[in-house]
Specification:
DSBA oxidoreductase; 3-stranded antiparallel β-sheet; two-stranded antiparallel ribbon; Thioredoxin-like_sf
Length: 191
Amino acid sequence: MTPEQLQYGVNKMQWYCEKFGGESRVMPMISRLSSVFESIGLPTYSLEGNTGPTLDGHRLAHFMKEEYSQSHQDVFMDTIMIDYFCNSKAPCDETALLAACEKSFEANTSANAEEQKANLARAEEVLRDKSKYRDEVLAQVRDVQGRISGVPHFIIRNEDTKKKVEFSGAQPVETFLDAFEELGGEGLELQ
């Protein structure tokens, strides 16, 4: 990728057509995902905008969980997923990534304005320092490489029994409920 593509990404529709074998294969996918998004109350699914590198987003997600909480990471991930799939924002858009951090801080803390500003400054430091959390994220990638072919990809693990269930893509609520039931309900961790 060129430096410009690394910063702004590449046209999402064009990239999906190249990846999945043309517009005739992508259009039914758009229709199906639009229906799924609508059925669960999400904004309209869109292939407008750009796609691009996700390493910075993964580094920030790791930062949110490590330095704050799982809930911080959840709000951050929900925000960047909606931004990408519905709001035409590239996963390498630094403004969108920092806005997702800010939304997470607002949703998860009762910190005053100065503390919120300090939290956001910490996130900006992580974004600027490309080495921060890089090794940890790349280790996670190596751990799942070859098993995951699409996003979102869910790994639900029961830490007590060490059993896990994995699945990819938009799924109905029943898929999650079945996985929780299969794993026993206690000691579960969603990754």
